[in-house]
Request: fold
Amino acid sequence: MPGLLIETLRGNRADQVPLWLMRQAGRYLPEYRALRADKGGFLDLVYDSDAAAEVTIQPIRRFGFDGAILFSDILIVPHAMGQTLEFLAGEGPRLSPRLLDAPLAGLEAVPERLEAIYRTVAKVKAQLGPETTLLGFAGSPWTVATYMVNGEGSRDQHDTRAMAYRDPQAFQDIIDAIIGVTVEYLAGQIDAGAEAVQLFDSWAGSLAPAEFERWVIAPNAAIVTAVKARYPDVPIIGFPKGSGEKLPAYARETGVDALGIDETIDPRWAARELPAGMPVQGNIDPLLLLAGGDALDAQADHILRCFSGRPHVFNLGHGIGQFTPIAHVEQLIEKVRGWRG
Reply:
């Protein structure tokens, strides 16, 4: 029997609301920290399929979430496209050569770097019961491109946005290349056992409306169309963080099955403005989960009430913070599990 999460993503509303949390596998869990200390660097952990599968399953074992999200990183795609990827302690990821300084054509693809991720998916799938939905993911082209162009994250994606204005054809070539690899990457995850996939566009909110149409909506629509042509029954969640009033257009034009919304979105507005019947995912503030207490319960109740008229997956507005107390996660789970819409 299909799990509650996959049924909700397919548009079927139930009395109980499914729950998973972005970045639920990671640094806030003591069992993750112990494994990371044993295995070494982050990238080594991602490419160790046995260890990555264990990390993916840790929050399921502890909390019984309705979804298990693959433990990996959105920058695996540019790594497979030929850039060098490093995770520097205290500084975050670095890609080289930067596409500000070097041509896309100069990269030599290394597609075999994706094989370990597929092995992780298969190992996780083999350990999950039917009640737990296995979620794969990839970064959306705009967000991935910001790292490929600049070589690292930035506050406002200044250099990448400037390049897109200055030389839109060269930037389109980068986007198109990312689309092609991402389609195959998601297909590989689905073939290995992923039951649904999410597209993370963490920097979508930095773009002006016309640029949002070109660099967020159009590339995500291309990915959705290609994946759906092969796997029509696999739900796709779109998560364009920071998109604000552009969310309804994204929902209508990309073809995603469900829409993740961040903590800046009023759930009353989202319930009113998003396409009727579309499943939504979100959207409690990760910092409120960090704080806990009565305010956490009150906001969870508010979100649950606002989305009670449509399929709803309870989640955060972005990833769980590494210092979030386990007790606060348990508090949220108790609240959501006790809800009946």
